[in-house]
Amino acid sequence: MDFWSKEPPLPPSRGPISTAIAEYLRSTGPPPDDGTIADASPFGEDWQLGLYLCYELHYRGLAGVDAAREWDPDLLRARSALERPFLKALRHQATRHERTAAALDDLLVEPVDGIGVTHYLQDDGELWQLREYAAQRSLYHLKEADPHAWVLPRLWGRAKAGMAAVEFDEFGGGRADRVHARLFADLMADLGLDTTYGRYLDSAGAEALAVVNLMSLFG
């Protein structure tokens, strides 16, 4: 199997939220109630895994889960109840800018003395750390640019044309061997990692889950 495979299995739960969502997806229990959600941290593994499972129905789906659950009203309400505190927590932590242009200026300039994970891996990282990072990032990169496609119906004119051009490149410019998700799968294979879609969901930390969830939420 590789990353073209569909419908990853439901992973083990990590707390009451993800347990309730998994049981609801299997039709063996109700979705999480407000009290269960209120007691958890928006940045915690249980919260982020539960939200990830809700979103995954809009991508390849989950093995053994009825595709009709994608638009299930009760599940959508539970998802919304998870999204609102997550957004509030993000706004609390994010740097504030008076103008959009100022925020973009900070994001579009690569710092010479960058201290992020990729800078560390490039300068000082070991192979096992690169493999771990690639496994965690595979949650997004094996569906690279799919979350961004949700925004296309909301754009018009130059913005839509520009976004479509970026997506065309992300999806290989018409060539399956150049699809960016395929290229990342090739990287994983070179590192000796399993390229099956969703293979490393079980071991993904809250941080890796939150990155993918944020893109899905903004879509």
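(the above was protein one; protein two follows)
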Amino acid sequence: GVGTGFYLTHVPESSLISLMDLNEASLNAASTRAGESKIKHKISHDVFEPYPAALHGQFDSISMFYLLHCLPGNISTKSCVIRNAAQALTDDGTLYGATILGDGVVHNSFGQKLMRIYNQKGIFSNTKDSEEGLTHILSEHFENVKTKVQGTVVMFSASGKK
């Protein structure tokens, strides 16, 4: 998702950005905050579904910051999200982002409580998400995969579409 658009305010004026979110209100809020002149496309779309054919091969980079842990299902069921993004990238494009892990990391007591509540309510679906699992689904669709765990978050980049 696009969040509030806070970080988009720091993008150079010459940049053209496409925003994708299932929620129209989030798209509108983020594009307003970023500045409409920077926005090339506002796309209301479910990331579990293939992107429209007109978007295939169109993007130099796609960011997925703090999206994957919010999507329903285990890490394997999220592989189609990675596949769909890969299809939208140019041949030399890069997918990058970060997600909160539930497995293979140590959450402090407050984090454990939040994880339990958020997963019970369906806000998160990441109790079994691990760096290994993420690396596996990224490697299904990309030749070059890098991950780095920082605390309870894994940052990732993937390029070289298969």
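Reviewer note on protein two: Residues 1-45 form one domain.
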